[in-house]
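Problem: given the chain below (395 residues), write out its structure.
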Amino acid sequence: MSDDTPTFEQIDWSQHSPNRVVLDYSTVGFLLGLAGVVGSFLYDFFVVPDGIVLYGLFAPTFLDWLAMLSVLLLVFYVVVPLVREYELTLRYWRRLRTQPAAVLSLGYLLVFALVGLFGPAVYGPPSDAPLWASLDVRGGIPPSQPPAFTSTPVERLRPFYCGVEPVGGQCRGTIVHPLGTTSRGRDVLGVVIAGARLALKVAVITATLLVPLGTAVGAAAAYYGGWVDTTVTRYLDLQSALPSFLIYFFYQSFYGPSVGVLILLFGLLGWDRVARRVRSDALRLRDAGFVRSAEVAGSPPAEVVRRHLVPNVVATVVSALTIQLPFILLMEATLAFFGLVQADTNSWGRSIDFGLSSGLWWELLFPAAALVATVVALATLGNGLYDTFETRREA
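Solution.
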């Protein structure tokens, strides 16, 4: 029997009792983790003075707390189920690895996630010292240095610093700063790594807002139908007419720029696209045999939606998410490019803006390449995952 041959699931009928509430390991683990995060937040907010690090580790921002909650959701509702259902995960992997572009994109995104998580701690954050500070104060980082194994004319360096003795009027790059330094005296590799952390936060937080809201609302509207479907559809029409970026413009004009608010706006006002696609797909499954069988067996409506409709619209959710995430990453970079986020934000968009202003090709190239590679990898992997999950549903 091949791996793609569909098999019947062994059903524990006791779980279909209308009066039975079952908490699985993922939910229990998430609730325990949530209690820890909420407790740490309350301790940090009410006990720890401003400017003092939490537990001697770091001083979390509003964006960090959102990222912690998002990571909890991803770990216990994505990673843990994949590990528990390892045979099904291996089956998915065997299908996915037949698509080299998707596998390459997955590898890049794994590296991107690891760099975003641990890179700033290992490599160190970019220098925040002012340009006019001495070389010692700026950690010995000279500004406007070219990448390793390249050179640039000395007269282009403003102000003039060179990490090594110029040769023939050319300032050569060194392996100490493999991607060079910016015109503000920041290590370009450090800038790219710090931008990866911000991009990772944006992607993780928006994904954990878009997917649960869009999937739950879309599947429920399709299953219940009637006035529920009509009400949901009308609301989605209203929400789609609210431009997130315009609302953010109004917010930042009164209260100042905030990356956290930007992410929340795009997450809370962007899930309607996911909901529409899930609803359209779930409508075709509403009268499927496995749904009718669950109803006849006595499963309550919420259980039918959770256990039977939602797992079969995974391909649609993945497809919608891989359209939304690149758009949100590009929008954040665009707003940062135009200076509509905090000035100290380590965004790839802001780095691209500085690169264009300075005229240093390496200051522009590497952040732009990282942004483009991440967006393309998300879209490519999304297409591969859609084909993988859709094959399962057709079987």
